[in-house]
Amino acid sequence: MASRMISGSETRQSRARKVVEDIRATKFGIGRSQKNPLAPDMHQAITHLAAELYQKDLHFVMELVQNADDNTYAEGIVPELKFILVEADVANVGVEWTLLVLNNEVGFSQANVESLCSIGLSTKKGKRDSGYIGEKGIGFKSVFLITRHPIVISNGYRIRFNDAPTPETDLGYIVPEWAAQPSDEDLLDCIGGAKLPSTIFVLPIRSDKVQPMREQLFQLSPQLVLFLNKIEKLSVQQLASSHANKSNAAANLLKSMCVQRHRIPSSRACLSLIPNTCSHSVVRLSFSNQEAIYHVWQQEFPVCADHEVDSRRHVKTCMISLAFPLNNKRIRSHSEPDVYAFLPTKISAGLPFLINADFLLVSSRENLRFGSKWNTGILSRIPEAFMAAFMFLLRDVHHLSSSGIQLRSIYSFVPCARLSVPELGFVRDSIIEQMKQHGTILCAGNVGQYLPLGGAGHSDAGCFFCPPHEARVIHPEFGQILELAAKANIPPPKALLCQSTYIVDAELAETHPSLFSVLKVASYDEKEYIQIVRSPAWLQSLTEAMYVEVLYFLMYNSTQLAISMQNLPLIKYLDEKGNTQLLAPEHKYEVPVYISKIPKDELIVSRWRATFQPWLRVQFMPTKTVKAINITPAEKQKSLYTWLKKIANVEHLSVTSFGESLIKRCTERKSDACLTLNAMHFFLHANYEGYLPHGPDLSRAVKKLPLIDNSGAVHQDFSGPILLPASVCMWPRILLHNTWKGDVIFLSESYLKVPSFMSAHVEAEEVVQFLKMTIGASDIFDIRKPPNVRMPIQAPWLSADDCMSFLSWIEALPCKPSNLMASLKESSWVTTMNHGYKKPSQSFLHIEQWNGALQCEDVPVVNAGFYGDLRPFTTILTSLGMVTEVADGVGVNAVAEHVKELAGQGANEVRSDTAGRWYRYLRLHNWMGWSGKSTQKLIWVPGFTPRWSSSSALGSWKCSDECVIDDSGGLFHERLTILSKVYTDELVLAFFQQHMGVAVTPGTEKYCQLWMDWGEKYGFEVTEEACKNAWSIIAKGWKTCSKTSIQFFKAKCRVPYVVSGKIQLARPTEKLSTALAADGGAGGPFANFDSSKLLPPNFQAASVGSKMSCWRLGMYRAILGYLANPEHGLSFQARKRMLMQLENVEVLQVEEVSEVQYTVSLAGKAYKASKKGYARWEKGQKRIYVARPLNACNKVKIAHELAGEVAKGVVGVKRVVLVEGLHELLLLAAGFEFEDSAVQQLLLLRNLRLTVEDDALLEVQG
């Protein structure tokens, strides 16, 4: 097709025409008479061959392009090929449309013309190494697909071919004819312009091919010129009828398309990096206001002997070209070819780049000969060429920045997807395998990871590439965290500094996920993420926003219960010093971490954190961390808080929830008073600062706390009254003994001792108000239902004001506890004017209303000067037994009790007129309470002064048996109290006689005792008058005496006898008794005293022993020494009273002591028994009878009973402990007959000492 066009030169046309005529005559025998017999067969063969090779209407265009690229062009000319579709019959052959093909080559030669007139005789055969891409020799014949009469105009040649056999040769297709039409003027009129190109093909289009041509011409791919050797510009135009506007051809342009190739030479830097066998260029294709840039990599490979074929016998090297669309815009559809043999094939395998090589094609040029070893050799070299180009682009992309290439876009050239052409699959697989062996993965340089410097993986641009097996794809969210940290100059995690793998560039991982799947690039797994995060220094150096993103990442991308996460220091918290620490989930119970639900709540809880550290450890997540969480979306916040709770038990904490935790811990540790106290103070503080306002919620919470009483004991779930601490309450003055313990809680003073950080603001009064409002603590007088227990009361008890308050409280109680009332009634707490503290029942109110019957000094009158006016409390005082009103008999019991109390106390200073008024008042009100109590000392006898007392006008108390109203004989003035000599008021004496059983005169038994006492006194003289008086009474009452008394009297009785004119008493002899027995009278013994008849009939006196030796001083010392022991708590007055019972008591030794009779109950039956005694104290007779010892054993028994009698007589039988101790001491002293010096030594050994008062008393008694 490379023919030369000669414009208007007759000589050139003549020469060209002669060449055509020679071909017609020489080759086809035109002008001969005989035709070639093979012509019809050759015609049919050409027809079938063209039909089989070129089945597509547009394929002839590819052949024309190939021919144009093989043409020769003048230097300085931009090789161009143009297709013009014009609606005109340019050749005047009867068609409507004509296709004009214009090429600015140098023009046809004679050889070219001869090639057109032949089959398979191409001028380019054997010239592959010279850059020719055509070789079959039948390319031009493809135009017959659309035209019947193609015309070639070039370099003076104007040749027309016909598809029908000529009459002269019976051949078509290859027989040339000279074409006069169209002329050059016709062509210029059609296409416009001033000059025609050197070569023009005029192709009248068959009517059935017009529409396909109109559609397909404009579908030519711009990549068509990419791999051409020479053609730089390719254009297609559609023009209207040439008759429409002959003056302006441009106005006839209906449609156009133009592709122009621009080669951009590589920079010197690039050229220096390209091997000699390789070349690189940047090709820009301009197309319809679009532009596509390709990096074209060419690499020459030697042809292996195993891949040689005959058709390429002389070719020793093979050039492979790969075109990479750098701006990622291939101007083509997905169905367009990606394999070229300089011209596109029909192979569209799905490669992301274009391949061009000297492939062997099938005759149609639409496909490769895949069975050809030549093609196999080329295909096997493609992976190598790809890797060379790929690595060049990766490492030198900064030198290619002017071309618009981006580093990460280079990875789009990797054939990740499976190819649709199986025969090319091994190429793709081989590329992938080679990618795996090289450092092809771009590593992230902005995440702080360690990248080896200057290694093979480094590019000049500072990028680092590693093999796929060393690369790890990181989650984009985590990668972003690392990137932000690196930008903030935060040192990377330790794991990134010493790892053997490298993090893939994040953008690359995001844009090319399939690449990493194909290259088997692993993604970081959960353990690896945790290993990176396991860098406390890195975590703490992150900003709060970054740290929160780490938490979110782990939440969404880790297994909740992963073992590796359990020991990961992850959760931020503030320690006791305010430093940020990290908590591993496995320590969540040792270090509980909380998030302050309300920011200000953290302030107060933090103040208390150190206080509660031993019981409830609270570590807060830093406030700035919480703020960073809270600015994230609400749903994410909720999920994160839930996750933190699950893995590390991180909970929201408010003042309320902290208080609930304290309550729970207090409940668990019920006996921990310190915890309970601090918890109460926390609630107080929270209330004071306004965190927990007063209300039902606060009260319910505080009431769940245990309570601490004043002994430090802790009480849980107490429902009784609660009293405030003693220092702010009245109860200590009221409850002198803690008798309410168990029924009432007395709060500890510790409640008032708030921590130092509170004491400057919270005072005791505020604590008290808090306790009142929350737990209902109160003072004693606020209790409406006090415990029903006894309350011991000791005087002095209450002040006047307290007493008033107490009475008001008791009176206001809806239900007065019986035991409390009993305690008030039975305790001596009422302050009287002259009588100290008395029971209410012993006290008198408003004594002036008693009309003179009694005076203030007579009875305990309430001290109005101390209390003030108690009349408003008359009701409650009356219920307590106080005498509050005047009425007949009212107060008589109180007066009697007062007298009895004074008598019991041994009061020895009582005014006689006072005593008279007592007894007169009792007689007037017929008091019978003392009748039958003859042994109780209730009769005051004034004026008795003991020998040992230096005081005067002292009196004593006597019982009824010790008194008589009158002693007419005058014999008992030393033995009995003669009341008529003391009291002159007949009412008083009548009270003694009628109400207290005092005898009017001494009775018979008293005279018997008087006579026996006289008989015991050695040398005692008795007057005759005394004998007559005594025996006259004895005789009169003899029959009234009891048998026992008579027997005892007989045993002790002495008879009078006259010695030297004096009457004395002596033991009667048997003879005297016999003589006297005969003179018994009916009136009883001594009915009429006669010295010759002394004894009554049948009277026989018994022998009475003598007095024992004097051991009184040693016994007194032993008794006082024992009673003075401070452990017994006996006052000197009490000891004195006890000892004085031995005053004037005689100790007599007798033959025997009468038996003691008693009753024994056995098995429900009563048996009378008796016991022989060895000692007995007769207090009424002031005598102690002791049996004479018969032997050593008998002597021990006597000493034992004597010590017991004295101990019981002195102390009283009810005081068992004192009796036993004194008994033991006296028994020891009796062993040495109470010798005084021995007793002193015994007391010294027993660590017993007499007081100064005891020594004085003993000196008086001695």
Summarize the structure in words.
The protein has about 1250 residues and is α+β, with helices and mostly antiparallel strands. Strands 5-4-3-6-2-1-7-8-9-10-11-14-12-13 form a 14-stranded mixed beta sheet. Strands 18-17-19 form a three-stranded parallel beta sheet, with no helix packed on it. The protein has a three-stranded parallel beta sheet with strand order 23-22-24. Helix 16 (about 545-555) packs across helix 19, helix 31 runs antiparallel to helix 32 and helix 40 (about 1190-1210) packs antiparallel against helix 41. It has 43 helices and 41 strands. It is rod-shaped and about 235 Å long. About 35% of the residues lie in helices and about 15% in strands. The model is unreliable at about 1-10, about 130-135, about 945-950 and about 1070-1110 (pLDDT under 50).
